[in-house]
Amino acid sequence: MAKVSVYNMEGSQVGEMELNDAVFGVEVNAHLLHKAVVAQLANSRQGTQKAKTRSEVSGGGKKPWKQKGTGHARQGSIRAPQWKGGGVVFAPVPRDYSQKMNKKEKRAALKSALTSRVQEEKLIVVDSIQMDEIKTKKFAQALDNLKVEKALVILKDNDQNVVMSARNIPTIKTALTNTINVYDILKYGTVVIDQAAVAAIEEVYA
Hints:
Ribosomal Protein L4, Chain: A, 33% helix, 2 domains, alpha/beta, six-stranded mixed beta sheet
């Protein structure tokens, strides 16, 4: 089992912790990581774009002028694509961009993402992530103590003092153990997690 140092909010090492290899020590599957990220980004797309084709634009039922003898190019409708106010040639229509991954793939991808953070020494375990009050400045100082600038902070419980304190820091995102995903783990680079959250993740995914 891999061992990682455990820190407190002041940035001092207070001990060590063994990580379960079934979650934090698997073989990193780059293909599954890529698939998970692409699927999540695709699933976040609304797909509500719409433009009208020439058959949907109102008007244009009458031929604007006769075929020959006017000196103009022949035209069949004032709603043809080359006219102002005409329809769009290959107009976008509403569609579903979502992609599916089965449960085993999702679990394996998440384990790969967590393992990659351990291997790159970007998993910082804190004994307890707590705030006595909602204070962004104090939380930012705690991150400075841990030498962290951009990170995903994973909590076991929805501590509103921590969540609200971190909300105004653009390079920090908080997540609960049941809401973590591959995209956020990879995007924010460093993962800051408390011991309780590590235990919760190991209990679910081991």
